[in-house]
Every structure is written in structure tokens, then in C-alpha cells.
Design a protein that fits this description.
elongated; MarR_EPS; alpha+beta; 2 strands; WH-like_DNA-bd_sf; Arc Repressor Mutant, subunit A; MarR family EPS-associated transcriptional regulator; two-stranded antiparallel sheet; WH_DNA-bd_sf; 12% strand
Length: 114
């Protein structure tokens, strides 16, 4: 899921930020990684890149989600939520086991001191 997780982070950033550098800073990955992911998302038809000239007369790209990109963002978000729910359930089970172990060790201590 690692690649899908990065794709979801990039998809979530599009619209809020305008440059690869800003996306990279926001999600904590290198500009090179963001560039690679954006190219893949563009190839898949999930993102559209529009060129424009900024105030410093430099050519930049504005990234926009396509309708397919919005749908993929929803799909990946659902997958991510499901994974997090499963992780939460596993942690709850581990916590319960630890509590039972703790209770048992306290019972043994109480029994031994009598």
C-alpha cells in the first residue's frame, strides 16, 4: 500500500498547493519522489497539469484533479480508512491481552503474599 499511500497524499495536496516543492514539503517527500508520482498520476489520467507564467515570469504547472482523479481519491481514502480500522482493532486486541496479562500477574502476586 506504500505507493498508494503516497499517491493519496499527493492527490489530497492538489488544489491546496501549486508547486511540486510545496507538495513535497506538505507531505514530507522529496521533490523527485513527488515528480515521479505526479507523472504516474498524469499518465493514469487522474491529474491534469496546466502551464502558466508566475509573477517572476517563470513557467510553472498548476495541478488539477480530473473526475477520475477525484474518484480515485475517494477509493484510496476508503482503502486507507479500512486499513486504519484493522490496525485499530489489532491494537485494541493487543491492549486487551496486555491488560489480562497484567491482571493475572497481580493475582499471582496477591496469592503469593498470603
Amino acid at each position: 500500500m506504500h505507493q498508494e499511500e503516497i499517491e493519496l497524499q499527493v492527490l489530497r495536496s492538489i488544489g491546496k498547493v501549486t508547486s511540486q516543492r510545496t507538495i513535497a514539503d506538505e507531505i514530507g517527500y522529496s521533490v523527485g519522489k513527488v515528480n515521479y508520482v505526479l507523472k504516474k498520476l498524469i499518465e493514469k489520467g487522474l491529474v491534469k497539469a496546466d502551464r502558466f507564467v508566475n509573477s517572476d515570469n517563470k513557467i510553472q504547472y498548476k495541478y488539477l484533479l480530473t473526475p477520475s482523479g477525484i474518484k480515485e481519491k475517494i477509493t484510496l481514502t476508503d482503502k486507507f480508512i479500512e486499513i486504519k480500522k484493522e490496525e485499530y482493532d489489532k491494537l485494541q486486541q493487543q491492549k486487551k491481552e496486555y491488560e489480562e496479562m497484567y491482571d493475572m500477574s497481580n493475582l499471582k502476586k496477591a496469592h503469593c503474599t498470603k
